[in-house]
Design the sequence.
């Protein structure tokens, strides 16, 4: 049996080592990871995916830790992926320290993994999603993705979640920043965390008034208060996530959203493959390199792009003859 087949078989049985190995292969862009993902795709769809995002230090990990405990009490298994796109230079160990879930490590029903961008943001959200897929295939009931929400590429990580939770804190102006960062648009639920601090009630009112500016939809997000460090408000958050899930399921939106995401994912994979194929050609690379070393600033980028695309097309045609 090939080693991929061995991993796949064990992964589907829920084996932790096979799961860890699969995620490492995904992280390293090992060709075996595509084999594994292709083979397990039919088993995907059971896990409910929750995205948790918000500004740095808002208490996201503390909340994830509490949510995991809540789901464990209900008898569910949980996978957690903590994505850290902001610090390309932190390795796994350092990142591990930032995840405040140490007492969960020994629980067989919980699998926690952190992923860092290792220098480039590109592809990280896709890798995190692939990791969520293998956690799903390994039988987890819930997969929680945590990422700091500061820019679009970070938000991509949680956009694949069925329910997205945005965590904010009472500090003034937080909700305005959140609005700017696009968090208002993607949230299905807001958590005003650190409600033990001054200004919590004001912040809730502020977020709610921001939400009124948003076009009203069938699902309008609620703002819940929490003190994650004391476990306060966590049961209510889990309940609200469940409510959102029921809403999606009743309107058949869960499957519709998931299909839309798969379609987007296919488009992005095709884009990456085509682009790679395009620039793998030495003629086309030379054309661009010559341009960079030329002193002529009056060359039309459109004309050159046309030339490159023509070159690509004619070579493809030749290949097919
Ligand atoms: N006062 C107070 N502190 C909290 C609360 N929740 C979390 N904290 C503290 O806030 C700090 C940051 O918490 P984390 O859970 O690491 O926050 P995070 O959003 O995951 O941080 P990053 O992943 O680094 O962006 C920690 O020291 C927590 O103990 C809370 O409800 N009240
Ligand atoms: Mg964190």
Sequence:
């Amino acid at each position: 049996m090939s080693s991929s087949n061995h991993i796949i078989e064990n992964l589907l049985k829920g084996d932790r080592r096979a799961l860890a190995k699969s995620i490492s292969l995904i992280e390293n862009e090992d060709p075996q990871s595509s084999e594994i993902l292709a083979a397990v795709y039919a088993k995907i769809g059971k896990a409910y995916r929750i995205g948790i995002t918000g500004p740095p230090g808002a208490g996201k990990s503390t909340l994830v830790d509490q949510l995991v405990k809540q789901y464990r009490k209900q008898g569910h298994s949980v996978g957690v992926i903590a994505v850290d796109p902001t610090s390309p230079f932190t390795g796994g160990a350092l990142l591990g320290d930032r995840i405040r879930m140490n007492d969960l490590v020994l629980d067989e029903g919980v699998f926690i993994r952190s992923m860092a961008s290792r220098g480039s943001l590109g592809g990280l959200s896709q890798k995190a999603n692939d990791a969520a897929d293998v956690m799903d295939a390994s039988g987890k009931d819930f997969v929680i993705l945590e990422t700091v929400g500061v820019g679009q590429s970070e938000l991509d990580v949680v956009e694949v979640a069925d329910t997205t939770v945005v965590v904010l804190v009472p500090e003034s102006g937080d909700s305005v920043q959140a609005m700017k960062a696009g968090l208002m648009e993607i949230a299905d639920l807001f958590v005003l965390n650190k409600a033990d601090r001054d200004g919590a009630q004001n912040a809730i009112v502020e977020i709610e008034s921001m939400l009124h500016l948003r076009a009203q939809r069938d699902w309008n997000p609620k703002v819940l208060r929490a003190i994650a460090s004391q476990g306060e408000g966590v049961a209510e958050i889990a309940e609200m996530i469940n409510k959102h899930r029921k809403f999606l399921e009743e309107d058949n939106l869960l499957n519709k959203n998931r299909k839309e995401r798969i379609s987007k994912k296919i488009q992005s994979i095709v884009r990456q493959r085509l682009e790679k194929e395009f620039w793998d050609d030495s003629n086309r690379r030379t054309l661009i390199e010559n341009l960079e070393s030329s002193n002529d600033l009056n060359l039309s980028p459109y004309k050159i792009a046309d030339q490159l695309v023509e070159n690509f097309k004619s070579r493809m045609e030749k290949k097919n003859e």
